[in-house]
TrEMBL record:
One of its GO terms (molecular function) is alliin lyase activity. It holds the Pfam family Alliinase_C. This is Kynurenine aminotransferase, glutamine transaminase K. SUPFAM superfamilies: PLP-dependent transferases. Belongs to the alliinase family. The keyword Cell inner membrane does not apply. It comes from the Eukaryota. It comes from Handroanthus impetiginosus. Its EC number is 4.4.1.4. One of its GO terms (biological process) is amino acid metabolic process. Keywords: Aminotransferase, Lyase, Pyridoxal phosphate, Transferase. Residues 1-320 form the Alliinase C-terminal domain. Gene3D superfamilies: Aspartate Aminotransferase, domain 1 (3.90.1150.10), Type I PLP-dependent aspartate aminotransferase-like (Major domain) (3.40.640.10).
Amino acid sequence: MSYSFNDRSYISQQLENHIVKVHSIAKNANTKGKYIVFGVGSTQLLSAAVFALSTNLSSRANVVAEAPFYSPYKEQTDYFETARFHFVDNLKNVSDYGSEVIEFVTSPNNPDGNFKKPVFEGSSVQYIYDHAYYWPHFTAIPAPANEDVMIFTLSKLTGHAGSRFGWALVKDKQIYDRMLTYIDIAELGTSRDTQLRALQLFKAMQQGDGKEIFQFAYKTMRDRWEQLSQIISLSTRFTIQEIPPQFCTFFQKVRGPSPAYAWVKCERKEDSNCTEVFSRAKITGRRGSRFGSDERYVRLSLIRGQDDFDLLIHRLTDLVSEEN
Ligand code: PMP
């Protein structure tokens, strides 16, 4: 098996066709006129995009993300920092109008599931839209996304995170070429085994009208969110994020929230380390500071297996019942 397909490309045309199809079924992204790059998970593409967007700028790019944000944006950018870019924690430090900015916009956001809008604007700002969760099972889809650089992942579409497969939709040919160069230099292509695995998954998903996976996964996530919200509503000690109902073009109706995570806040003064409070109740969450936020917050995952989720609900019920 050679590195490439027909000695030309690292990208399976068949798989590309299936990706275009899944977006048209989910109605979540406009693929027309876009180039597609594959990566070892979307994680690799986040870095490839930063390298691509920071080439040939007049000054060093400030890479930013508004808190709370997914921590690898900072971790990767710090680790791979070059003379062309660096991560800036405090958005106020990018005050000079006209400085080069690369902003990660995660929509819906990890950890809080809300739609994010860019913080920075202007001709010197470029965006990387991380749409890992922009699928009908995690969020309403108000309209197909149509940004210049958009990143998706199999991890949050089918749950096959360990297969390590992600893709980017890129409008500009030059940015696309630079991202391909990154993959070429870092990896000499994307695993053909992984691409074959992904293709089988897409084929399975697209049987019938291809909508069933979203209907099933939406119902699962919505039921989980309702169970969790119901317990938290009995508490005065904890609160969770609010996500307003919204019209969804996939379901053709207004629908309630079904996020991947609960972003929990500990409201009591003495609970300043929220992760500790949950840890004492044998609930493992990811601490607020990992997201550039406060230790009053902890993120709980709703996308584990059913047994883990049932245990979470059980232990959360006990924790909340201690209040009375
Ligand atoms: N972006 C976001 C917002 C995520 O939450 C994740 C996974 N937790 C990723 C990217 C990375 O996913 P992967 O590398 O598995 O594609």
